[in-house]
Amino acid sequence: MSAMQTFDPEEILLRANALFRADQSKDLRDVIAEKIVELRHYDVLAMDRVVAILMWGRTGSVLLSSYLDGHADVIMLPELRSLRLYQFFKLYQSLPLRDKLLGFPTFYTQFFDGDFAISSAQYYAAVQAILEFYGKWPTEFLESRRAFFLFVNIAYSLALGRRPASANPLIVFAQHDWDNITAKQLVEDFPQAKFVHTIRDPISSCNGMFQFIISDMAAKFPRTHMLAPHGAIMRLVNKDRPHPGMESRSRAIRFEDLHCANAQTIRDLACWLGLPYQATLLQSTFNGSPYVVQRDGKAWSGPSLEQGKRQSKNLSLKDRAFLFASFYENFVEWNYPCPKIFKHPLVRCIVFVSLFPFPMKMEIVAARGLFQRWTLPSVRHGNISAIIKSLLSIGLCRLKLIRLLVPAFFRRCAYGTTLLQVDPKKRPLKQRDVGAMAARSDAKLP
């Protein structure tokens, strides 16, 4: 987060120099020469195949990316490491290409540590090879946003020692967030770009997003507890549609299908992306290593039938009714179970208006966490201002929810909504089918 707060080009250069100081002192001439040979394989001017992966709450966007990792004609940065590519370029476009390529790993990324780390020396050598091989190309191209996007991905691939099957491989971009500006810029740079949005049962998506914010962010920053309900809902409202003008190049993939109909779902996606089908598409990896998910004391890699079931531990029965009323079109269009009574607009309005004045279970859980982690310690220390702020934050967060949900709900009622479309060639699994598959799987266990 400290890197995200620093927008000073000189600071980025200092970070980059510190990060690569040891590598600059090494004799990497032979390594650079080998990477220059590898660069001859790429047709940079023709590289226009890009797919952006986006989420709708907690919907498995990273999981989907992991299935594309091992394909012979794909290059990508693992997990969410490419998320800030366009933001970085906007902030530091005045820097020359070398400084941008070396500075990006210091900007909210984990290239050289954590899971799926690569060698900093190999990345540094890859950047030097790019500068030597393309150094005489027109400055206008080298300093462009498109070139930066391409060369970050190529440098990473070179550092891994991977050579794609073709000179024009597919680049997987973790756009992740529904951001219309980034989507427009991507299409400007790569006119053939496509968008894949991962979606999920709205109840499970809301529940999972809230749990993620509470366990990840609020645990580190106690005062953000009350923001968790708003954050969970915010990622669902108005982000369930294609980017304007991008309908023909967008499609949705259900989280449940990634777990319960994995082979056919990935095969259909590969066909849509123009990728020849390979067995590696069924392996969940990054940089060739398994992508392992850990949750609730369990760990797994790849599909899990259990994950395809509806999750709602952070939502009460009242909350679920509220979500049925608020996102009825999503349940129906994406083939998720929903009480038929909600097909009547009047019923939806009555439920929405009658339930909204009462706090959701998420708000109660968040308020309890705020009280335990922030308010109570403030009482013990006699910090009156902190107590007042914590109490005010509860009311303010409720007002933020009202401001978010009320206009969105009545806009839907008045004008309808255009939702993301799942591949029409195959109907996605229904929740009862998921439960039956899980039951059959459990029956096979000793």
Describe the structure.
With 446 residues, this protein is an alpha/beta fold. The protein has two domains: 9-199 and 261-295, no CATH class; 317-415, no CATH class. 52% of the residues lie in helices and 9% in strands. It is built from 19 helices and nine strands. It has helices at 9-24, 29-39, 61-68, 85-92, 97-103, 120-133, 139-142, 145-160, 180-189, 202-218, 227-234, 255-260, 262-273, 317-326, 328-333, 345-355, 361-380, 384-415, 431-444; strands at 50-54, 74-76, 170-176, 194-199, 250-254, 285-286, 289-290, 292-295, 298-301. Strands 2-3-1-4-5 form a five-stranded parallel beta sheet, sandwiched between helices. It has a two-stranded antiparallel ribbon with strand order 6-7. A two-stranded antiparallel ribbon has the order 8-9. Strand 8 (292-295) and strand 9 (298-301) form a beta hairpin. Helix 17 runs antiparallel to helix 18 (384-415). The longest helix has 32 residues, at 384-415. The chain is globular and about 70 Å long. It starts with 8 loop residues before the first helix and ends with a helix. The model is unreliable at 1-5 and 437-446 (pLDDT under 50).
